[in-house]
Prior knowledge:
The chain is of the alpha+beta class and 154 residues long. 35% of the residues lie in helices and 26% in strands. The chain has 2 domains: 9-53, no CATH class; 58-148, 2-Layer Sandwich (Alpha-Beta Plaits), CATH 3.30.70.100. The chain has helices at residues 22-32, 39-53, 72-81, 115-124, 129-136, and strands at residues 9-12, 17-20, 58-66, 91-98, 105-112, 142-148. The strands form 2 sheets. Strands 4-5-3-6 form a 4-stranded antiparallel β-sheet.
Amino acid sequence: MALIGDSPVHFRTRDEDLVITPKIARKLIRLAKPRSRTESENEAAFLLVKTSRHPIMQVMTVVEGKIPKTRTKEFLSMYASVKDQAKPPGWKRSMLLHDTSEEGLYRISTLWESREALEQMRKNARVPFAVEIFRMHGSEPDVRIFEVPFAFET
């Protein structure tokens, strides 16, 4: 318990301030101790405790561009080809999204462990893959970075 102490842990999001009190933190630590729970329940409890000690916000990059119809098949094939390649440290997940109401509009959304991991990748890469793939297929993409204050998964 020395790591948490008697002070609340504060989290700031764009909309509100959140607080994890020492009492809640102690409950989270008890949850993290192995018992007869599944591995995923133990992992979730550990992540809550880890977050309460060291709040780190994930970020998502969204790279968007229009791909000419004549280049779509090649674009999709190239994106799929990186599935089994090594990913940079801090890379969590990437998704290729296709807009169903605007022909040729694609987005690559990539989740990063932290802003620091994203910045490290940007320092090490000449051009990030998500930007490069659009440029190689005739599109100068828009790039946006979003903080991920909350995420839910099943």
